[in-house]
Design a protein that fits this description.
Largest sheet: 7 strands, mixed
Distance between the termini: 29 Å
Order of helices and strands: EHHEEEHEHEE
Structural class: alpha+beta
Helix content: 25-40%
Amino acid sequence: MEPTIRDATSDDVPAILAIINHAIAHTTAVYDYQPRSLEVQQAWFDKKHADNMPVLVADYNGKVIGFGSYGIFRPWEGYRFSVEHSIYVSEESRGKGVGKLLLEALIEAARKQGFHTMIAGIDAENAVSCELHRKLGFQETGRLKEVGYKFDKWLDLAFMQLYL
């Protein structure tokens, strides 16, 4: 059975928090070092809602197994038609198509909201994420060398872009 992609609610924030904190502790998908608190994650969720930006979850049998969102790429008015997205999938659900479902839903939401382009900032060593984005039409448009540092090594950031 395939998970359901739906709008997140405040009740989903603890599950979202668990997924992001696992990514912080164990991956380079996010370059944060410290786990987030429930208050910080709730404030993030509330800001997305206030800004009319989606937070979607992948729900499988009542359990949140992934989430995705986007926001305006940069905080200046000229960027208001460009969004940058993030997708995180629980460790036990990776490799099962959950990320693809979330990304497809985010692309559709961005098109409906009238955005022009969608951008992904991906750790350049994350071949699985880069390939997923390529399959959905994203192209690598830039790479910043050694801009991140985590787990005692320098990390390159690949930017991938899709015109909506």
